[in-house]
Amino acid sequence: MAKEMMVKIDDCRLFAKLVGNKTGKPTIVMDAGYGDYSKAWDKVIDHLSEMSNVLIYDRAGLGKSEPSNAPRTSREMVKELNQLLKETKVKPPYILVGHSFGGVNARLYATEFQREVCGMVLIDSTPENYRERFLPAMSEEFQRLYNKQFVHEGNYDEFMESLKQIKDSKTKLNMPLIVLSAGQKAHYSKASQELWNEMQSELLDLSADAEFIIAENSAHYIQNDQPEVVIDAMRRLIDLC
Predict the structure, then answer these.
(1) Chain mean position to CA 89
(2) Which of 176, 154, 180, 149 lies closest to 165 in space, CA to CA?
(3) pLDDT tens per residue, range 19-44
(4) Is the peptide bond before 136 cis (omega within 30 degrees of 0)?
(5) Which of 28, 44, 45, 206 has a CA 20 to 30 Å removed from the CA of 231?
(6) Nearest-angstrom CA–CA distance, 140 and 104
(7) For residues 6 and 64, is the Cβ–Cβ distance under 8 A?
(8) In which element (H, E) is residue 4 found?
(9) Backbone φ, ψ for residue 27 (5° rounding)
(10) Residue 185 belongs to a domain with what CATH number?
């Protein structure tokens, strides 16, 4: 069963899709990466909906969702997602899944609404110290291209403000956490790949109940390159929740 919705929140309407017909299990809520939208989950959603209900959505200004006049920072996006969940009457507990920048949103949501979240999967999530610690390890060309990419959803300053928001709000989470790291990042040297995996593993500090997995044959989009890794992680997490 799949239900598509246009949900009114504040000054815009967001597209959401609820897939599955399960009761008594946490709803999986999935947040895509920067500039991405709900289609980012096409390769895994059918499998996940066999385990539990799944909510995917398009953030404001992406996919089928209308643009918003609010700042495009994680704190604003978390507020909008919370409104979306309330308006759609999708009740907690939730298992949050965040890819890349969506992992920043998932972390902030889990911090601000900890009672509503029973577990989280971070898929090659952006660390809060990415600019200070990781970018200097990359080539000047990579850094230049990285800095120019912020045209699809919020600007560079808003993205960096989002990283500051998770850094400032960082706290120990009382929930199971699975961190997935891409083991074959495009344009990464051996040293930068090792640094990336190290920084991903440090996200385990967010919870006392955390597991780290490297998707050895995957680039950034693990859900596309090795969907079985994401599906298996979700299967284990649902059992824990």
Answers:
(1) 21
(2) 154
(3) 998 778 899 999 999 999 999 999 99
(4) no
(5) 206
(6) 25
(7) yes
(8) strand 2-9
(9) -85, 135
(10) 3.40.50.1820
Query: Does residue 239 have a pLDDT over 90?
Result: no
Q: What is the per-residue DSSP string for 129-147?
A: TIIIIIGGGS-HHHHHHHH
How many CA atoms lie within 13 Å of 120's alpha carbon, on the beta-carbon side?
34
139 CB-near residues (< 8 Å, 6+ apart): none
Reference 65, options 148, 7, 128, 142; nearest CA is: 7
Cβ atoms 83, 107 nearer than 8 A: no
Dihedral over alpha carbons 44, 46, 52, 57 (to 10 degrees)? 70
Cβ atoms < 10 Å from Cβ of 136: 8
180-223 pLDDT tens trace: 999 999 889 999 999 999 999 999 999 999 999 999 999 999 99
Q: Give the number of domains in the chain.
A: 1
Query: Which residue range is the domain that position 137 belongs to?
Result: 2-240
Starting at the edge strand found earlier in the chain, the sheet holding 177-182 runs 2-9, 12-19, 54-57, 27-31, 94-99, 117-123, 177-182, 210-215
Residues contacting 21, CB < 8 A, separation 6+? 1, 53
CB contact at 8 A, 62 and 152: yes
Q: Which two tokens stand for residue 140?
A: 């000047």
Q: pTM of the entire structure?
A: 0.96
Tokens of 222: 């693990």
Reported as type and span, the H/E element at residue 55 is strand 54-57
